[in-house]
Design goal:
mainly alpha, extended, gluconate transmembrane transporter activity
Length: about 80
């Protein structure tokens, strides 16, 4: 898949995410899950791999955030 196609898919995903949260009043976490699923499928990731990719991506982000929250709690900020 070409770079331009992937950029267009990403842009469409961002627009869809904003519309779901702002106009449709969908909860942000649910909207993020739905849009990430659709973007992954549109980008050509096999349906069986989408869940694994999403879990791996979110796990990395949550791991980083957990460290920041833990250090903030220890410092009493």
């Amino acid at each position: 898949m070409s770079t331009i196609t992937l950029l267009c898919i990403a842009l469409a995903g961002v627009i869809m995410l904003l519309l779901l949260v702002i106009k449709a009043k969908v909860q942000p976490f649910v909207a993020l899950l739905l849009v990430s699923l659709l973007v992954a499928l549109a980008a050509g990731i096999p349906a069986g791999e989408v869940g694994k990719v999403m879990i791996a991506g979110m796990g990395g982000v949550l791991g980083s955030v957990t460290i920041i929250i833990g250090l903030g709690a220890m410092l009493g900020v």
